Amino acid sequence: MVVALAAGLVGVAGGPAARPAYADSYAPINGAGSSWSQNAVDQWRRNVAQYGMKVTYEGSGSSIGRQQFAQGSVHFAVSEIPYGIKDGGNYDQPPQRKHAYMPIVAGGTALMYNLKVGGKRVTNLRLSGEVIAKIFTGKITMWNDPAIKKDNPAISLPAREVVPVVRSDGSGSTAQFTTWMSKRQSATWNSYCAAAGRSTPCGVTSNYPVIPGSKTVAQNGSLGVAGFVKQEQNEGTITYVEYSYALNAGFPAVKVLNQAGYYVGPTAYNVAIALQKAKIDPDDLTQILDEVYTHGDPRSYPLSSYSYMILPTAVENGFSEEHGRTLAAFADYFLCEGQQQAPRLGYSPLPKELVIAGMAQIKRIPGAVVKNQNLDKCNNPTFAGGRNVLVANAPQPAACDRQGATQCVEGVVNHEVPGTGGGNNPGGGDADPDAGGGTPTGAPAPGAAPDAGAAAAIDPATGQLISAAAPGGADAAAATDVASGTVNLAASHVNRMQTLLMVLAGLVLLLVILVPPLVGHAIRPRGGRR
């Protein structure tokens, strides 16, 4: 009995029992839709396979995903926009199939670009909203345009054509980007739509209009646009894509000018700050982002948003309670435990209020069993002690990121970027052979901090430290990527529990060794006689 107890304690301390307790038999489920959030969904699918869940997903684009869900050919869909909006003059009819929306992950729509000066990659490009809109509507066609130079006083911009790269398929990424343009740059957007033969006011569209004969290039899927931009021969290109894809490719993303007058990147911190101003429809949990675009916090990234899972709420179209049990367990996992990986993958974890709302939506799935109704056991990294950890820890932008005559320098030559090393590549993206950067002149820009040392790993889009050099500057801890801080909030608790159990196991094993000889000595006849 003692030996069995010892073995049991050792198993608890270091074995599978430390994992979340999910059942080992689930009906397979399938989904389709957004490629914007596909990197997160794919990571979660791989994670839950260890619990016996088989979840397949095709990142075919939000429009196709919504169509397939309406037809009943998939069990769930993922999209950045709901049914029922007018898209390019066409009404996206909601399906007869009963459904609900559930936020699954937040993120920033990044502007990934490929630009070099003097053979060195530019990694610290800054753009205002007005300039972004003019680039993607063909009004700005050269990288040395005075408007771009005004945003980038420290870069000697080349006389090279700007080549916008857009999605050729119906996508949530396009819908998010054009929603922002229709709200913040409506005159420029409406003029472009009219030239492309669209009715105005143009509003949101999932299918980006391309004017025949223009320099705009259309590619299919998030991987398609990101893959096109990263090609060595496609210098001068720029695209809109979820930040995860730029991070995986090891390519930089633009710092966008916000309402406070600072240029900021799409980090998990800055997205979390921006989405404090998101309005959520209490009936279906869809998002209203008008105040996100104009948030006055210096840390706020304007092009921030959520992605949604479209859930079935009735047994129909081949969806059973067995499927519902799997889907609910999958959703229960990624709303809590799965959010820990969001920053490392290029996303931002959901805040507590959306996790609570999401749990309520899970309960509407036929056959659902919600395991994390008690949020004390939900390992979401954004909330601890009643506060949003990302928001509380978000660093202020550097003074040189303020609009004006100075400009920060990121991606300094010889600094590691995601994709070039094993530890910092979250999604296994291809390495860029010459992803070094720095100022085109080779000198620090005015207001830039000195080099902290070659041992530091830098996020190429924002200049945030991923792992600090030793010893680093005073700001190293504040700039450290969220993956090294808030993501592992649950790890210390697990480690303490394992340590305690190992100590107990050691005590039991000690008893196993000492007790039998003592007992034998006690019962042995005195004097050696029988």
UniProtKB/TrEMBL annotation:
<keyword id="KW-0813">Transport</keyword>
<feature type="region of interest" description="Disordered">
    <location>
        <begin position="414"/>
        <end position="454"/>
    </location>
</feature>
<protein>
    <submittedName>
        <fullName>Phosphate ABC transporter substrate-binding protein PstS</fullName>
    </submittedName>
</protein>
<feature type="compositionally biased region" description="Gly residues">
    <location>
        <begin position="419"/>
        <end position="440"/>
    </location>
</feature>
<feature type="compositionally biased region" description="Low complexity">
    <location>
        <begin position="441"/>
        <end position="454"/>
    </location>
</feature>
<feature type="domain" description="PBP">
    <location>
        <begin position="24"/>
        <end position="336"/>
    </location>
</feature>
<dbReference type="GO" id="GO:0035435">
    <property type="term" value="P:phosphate ion transmembrane transport"/>
</dbReference>
<feature type="transmembrane region" description="Helical">
    <location>
        <begin position="500"/>
        <end position="523"/>
    </location>
</feature>
<dbReference type="GO" id="GO:0042301">
    <property type="term" value="F:phosphate ion binding"/>
</dbReference>
<dbReference type="Pfam" id="PF12849">
    <property type="entry name" value="PBP_like_2"/>
</dbReference>
<dbReference type="InterPro" id="IPR024370">
    <property type="entry name" value="PBP_domain"/>
</dbReference>
<keyword id="KW-1133">Transmembrane helix</keyword>
<comment type="similarity">
    <text>Belongs to the PstS family.</text>
</comment>
<keyword id="KW-0812">Transmembrane</keyword>
<dbReference type="InterPro" id="IPR050962">
    <property type="entry name" value="Phosphate-bind_PstS"/>
</dbReference>
<keyword id="KW-0592">Phosphate transport</keyword>
<keyword id="KW-0472">Membrane</keyword>
<dbReference type="GO" id="GO:0043190">
    <property type="term" value="C:ATP-binding cassette (ABC) transporter complex"/>
</dbReference>
<dbReference type="InterPro" id="IPR005673">
    <property type="entry name" value="ABC_phos-bd_PstS"/>
</dbReference>
